[in-house]
Design brief:
heterodimer, A: 242 residues, alpha/beta, Spore Coat Polysaccharide Biosynthesis Protein SpsA, Chain A, seven-stranded mixed sheet, 9 helices, 16% strand, globular, disordered C terminus, B: 118 residues, mainly alpha, 4 helices
């Protein structure tokens, strides 16, 4: 077993996941890989297994956040030092994994975010998505003072104390964990660092944030941030967790 | 309220009570959830037997048009029921997610064990 685990949530990604796994495996990283097949109706599980990686399968679709949390639970039991979440739709580049993992191994921060918008990157997201992301960045800055450029990134790394906290019942949203969970962790005193990554548009399938969904999603996240701000949770035993 | 309407309301109330008890007998509804419906049906029965009750309560509360009292109370009760159900759906969903995740992780760990033993 290695020190790190790369968690790849996948839902109906049979067309993308094979290529993505080949790219990740080609990096020869010192980290294990687990694909969390979130009740896919296609051959996602078979394609992932054919690459020889660990696959955890949900019997039915639970949502992106729940799939990630399953990965955190597995990592927590297995005792990994850190985990990296990496989308299986081909949006992220496997070459960027190395710097995220290095940053985690050097314990540069509790949470490392792979940002698609740092150093002039704009990733080519749609207008509605860009508006949503800008609003979230402004809100995070307002509430926590932290300057985050890509709160919705699906490419993040967490040290043990973070993912263990997330793995617990009711500590992680089932659907899309984004700015709300980031605000929560910043307010709890954990450190966040962003590293620039390059991203590309998915080749096959539909993004979970397509169409009008970003606007509905924005309302949901705004409400979630408001509740988190009101709750003002503090880590019960941050020292013990570390 | 004329006699025909009163009979109709009474019959509807009885029908709901019988329906709820039948659901209880075949275990399609729990006792806890059936209480709300049984109390609601009894209220309908009481109103069909004593229709002037609404007028008395409305005049006590200084409501000029008594039917609005019925409308207000029924809307509030339905809102409360919807909220109660939403809370339960959220709780059940979270528990279902947790159970499903645990099962999936346990299966994965068992698979790991098998591979180690091979």
């Amino acid at each position: 077993m290695t020190k790190g685990l790369i968690i790849m949530p996948a839902y109906n990604e049979a067309e993308n996941i094979g290529r993505v796994l080949d790219e990740v495996l080609g990096q020869n990283l010192n980290a294990d890989i687990v694909v969390v097949n979130d009740g896919s109706a296609d051959a996602t599980e078979a394609v992932a297994k054919s690459r020889g990686v660990k696959v955890i399968t949900h019997p039915f679709n639970l949502g992106y956040g729940a799939a990630l949390q399953t990965g955190f639970k597995y990592a927590s039991i297995r005792g990994y030092e850190y985990v990296v979440q990496f989308d299986s739709d081909g949006q992220h580049r496997a070459e960027d994994l190395f710097k995220i993992i290095c940053s985690l191994e050097n314990k540069e921060a509790d949470i490392i975010i792979g940002s698609r918008f740092m150093e002039g990157g704009n990733f080519g997201a749609g207008i509605s998505k860009k508006i949503v992301i800008r609003m979230m960045c402004a809100l995070i800055k307002l509430i926590t003072g932290a300057a985050i450029t890509d709160p919705t990134s699906g490419f993040k790394g967490y040290l043990r104390q973070i993912y263990r906290y997330y793995s617990e019942y009711n500590h992680f949203p089932d659907d899309y964990p984004d700015a709300d969970i980031l605000v929560k962790m910043l307010k709890m005193g954990y450190t966040v660092r962003e590293l620039p990554i390059s991203a590309r548009r998915r080749e096959h399938g539909v993004s979970m944030h397509s169409g009008l969904k970003p606007l509905v999603y924005l309302l949901q996240i705004l409400l979630s941030i408001l509740i988190i701000t009101i709750r003002n949770e503090k880590p019960a035993s941050k020292g013990e967790q570390k | 309220m004329n006699f025909t309407i009163r009979i109709m309301v009474f019959l509807f109330g009885m029908l709901f009570i019988i329906g709820t008890i039948r659901l209880l007998l075949i275990k399609k509804i729990g006792e806890r959830y059936s209480v709300f419906w049984l109390v609601g049906c009894l209220a309908i029965l009481v109103l069909s037997i004593v229709p002037n009750l609404v007028d008395y309560i409305a005049s006590f509360l200084r409501i000029g048009y008594p039917p609005t009292l019925l409308l207000l109370l029924s809307t509030l009760m339905l809102f409360w029921l919807c909220l109660y159900n939403s809370i339960h759906i959220t709780l059940l969903k979270r528990r279902l997610v947790e159970l499903t995740q645990r099962k999936a992780v346990e299966d994965a760990l068992a698979e790991d064990e098998k591979q180690v033993n091979r």
